[in-house]
Write a structure and sequence with these properties.
Keywords: Cell membrane, Membrane, Transmembrane, Transmembrane helix, Transport
Shape: globular
Distance between the termini: 17 Å
Radius of gyration: 24 Å
Order of helices and strands: HHHHHHHHHHHHH
Strand content: under 5%
CATH class of one domain: Mainly Alpha
Subcellular location: Cell membrane
Family: Belongs to the binding-protein-dependent transport system permease family.
Helix content: over 70%
CATH architecture of one domain: Orthogonal Bundle
Pfam families: BPD_transp_1, BPD_transp_1_N
Protein name: ABC transporter permease
C-alpha cells in the first residue's frame, strides 16, 4: 500500500506540469488558427462593424494573447473554465452534461475490447501455431486495419437500416419518458452499435498483444518447471502463462485511453451521440475557443486519471515497479 501511495504521489506531481503544458500549448495553437468566435458568429448571423467591436469587447477578444492567457490561467486556479460563446452558459456546466455519456461510451468500449480481446488472446495463445491461433491472428489484423468510422457505418447499414434490430443513433429514445430499468435498457440498446464500432478496433490490438505475450511466456523456464511438476495444461495456461502475459496489456490499457478518447470523437459524430466528442466538433465549428480549451483540459485530466489508476494497478500486480519507484 505504501509503495502504491508513493507512486501515486510522484505521478500526481508530474501530472500537474503536464496539465500546465497542455493548457498553454493548446491556447497558443488555437490562437494561431485563423478567425475567432466573432468571425464565425458574423458569418452565420450577419452584423456590422459596431456589432463586431461590441462582441470582441464582450468576449474579451480585444485583449492581447498574453493577457487572455494570464486571465485564463488565473480563472483555472479557481476552477473556473469561463463562459461558452456558443451556449452562453458556464463551460463547466456544459461539459458536465456531456461527460457522463462519453465516460459510459469509453468505459463500455474499454470493457469490451480488453475483456473479449484478452480472452480471445488466451484462447489463441493456448495452442501456438494451431488453426485457431492463425485464424484469430489473421482476423484481428484485418479488424485492426478497418477505420472506426467505416466500421460504424457498416454496422448502421446492416443492423439499423437493413435488419432494423437496433436504433440508428442517439443515446436514448427522444421523449420516451422512460425511467429506472426501462431507461437503462433503452440506453444500453442505443449503445450497442457505437460501443461495438469503438471497441472492436482495440479488441484486435489486445488480442494480438495477449497472443504475442503468451507465445513469449511459453518459452520461459517457469513454464518448464510447471510442466515438470505435472500441472495440467489448463492450469499452466491460466495460472502461469496468461498471468505473465497480462502485465503488458495493463500498460497498454493506459496508453490506449488517449486514443480511445480520440476515437470517441469520430464515433459520437457517426452515431449522433451527445458526448464530449460531438461537443468538441460543435466548438470547432463555432470557433468557441474557451469551450474547446475546457474540453481538451477535461480530456487531458481523464487520460491522466486513467494512467494513474493503471500505474497503481501495475504496482500491485508487479511489486518490482512500486519498489523501484519508492527507492528512486
Amino acid at each position: 500500500m505504501t509503495r502504491a501511495l508513493t507512486l501515486l504521489r510522484r505521478r500526481l506531481l508530474g501530472s500537474t506540469f503536464v496539465l500546465l503544458i497542455v493548457v498553454i500549448g493548446t491556447f497558443l495553437l488555437l490562437e494561431a488558427a485563423p478567425g475567432d468566435a466573432v468571425d464565425a458568429y458574423i458569418v452565420s448571423t450577419g452584423g456590422d462593424t459596431g456589432m463586431i467591436e461590441l462582441l470582441r469587447h464582450r468576449w474579451g477578444l480585444d485583449q492581447s494573447e498574453l493577457t487572455r492567457l494570464a486571465n485564463y490561467l488565473w480563472a483555472l486556479l479557481h476552477l473556473d473554465l469561463g463562459q461558452s460563446v456558443t451556449f452562453s452558459r458556464p463551460i463547466r456546466d456544459v461539459i458536465l452534461e456531456r461527460l457522463p455519456t462519453t465516460l459510459l461510451l469509453m468505459g463500455s468500449a474499454t470493457a469490451l475490447s480488453f475483456g473479449l480481446g484478452s480472452s480471445l488472446g488466451i484462447y489463441a495463445g493456448a495452442r501456438p501455431g494451431s488453426f485457431r491461433d492463425r485464424f484469430l491472428s489473421i482476423g484481428s489484423l484485418a479488424l485492426y486495419a478497418v477505420p472506426g468510422f467505416w466500421l460504424g457505418l457498416v454496422l448502421i447499414v446492416i443492423f439499423a437500416v437493413d435488419l432494423r434490430w437496433l436504433p440508428i443513433g442517439g443515446i436514448e429514445t427522444i421523449a420516451s419518458s422512460k425511467t429506472g430499468l426501462a431507461r437503462a435498457a433503452d440506453i444500453a440498446i442505443h449503445l450497442v452499435l457505437p460501443v461495438s464500432a469503438l471497441g472492436f478496433i482495440y479488441l484486435a490490438l489486445y488480442l494480438r498483444m495477449m497472443r504475442a505475450g503468451m507465445a513469449e511466456a511459453w518459452r520461459q523456464d517457469f513454464v518448464l518447471a510447471a510442466r515438470s511438476r505435472g500441472l495440467s495444461r489448463r492450469r499452466i495456461v491460466l495460472a502461469h502463462v496468461a498471468r505473465n502475459a497480462l502485465l503488458p496489456l495493463v500498460t497498454m490499457l493506459g496508453l490506449q485511453s488517449a486514443q480511445m478518447l480520440g476515437g470517441s470523437v469520430v464515433i459520437e459524430s457517426v452515431f449522433a451521440v451527445p458526448g464530449l466528442g460531438r461537443l468538441a466538433q460543435e466548438a470547432v465549428a463555432a470557433r468557441d475557443t474557451p469551450l474547446l480549451l475546457g474540453i481538451i483540459l477535461t480530456s487531458a485530466v481523464l487520460v491522466i486519471v486513467v494512467n494513474l489508476l493503471v500505474d497503481v494497478a501495475y504496482a500491485f500486480l508487479d511489486p518490482r515497479v512500486g519498489a523501484s519507484e519508492a527507492g528512486a
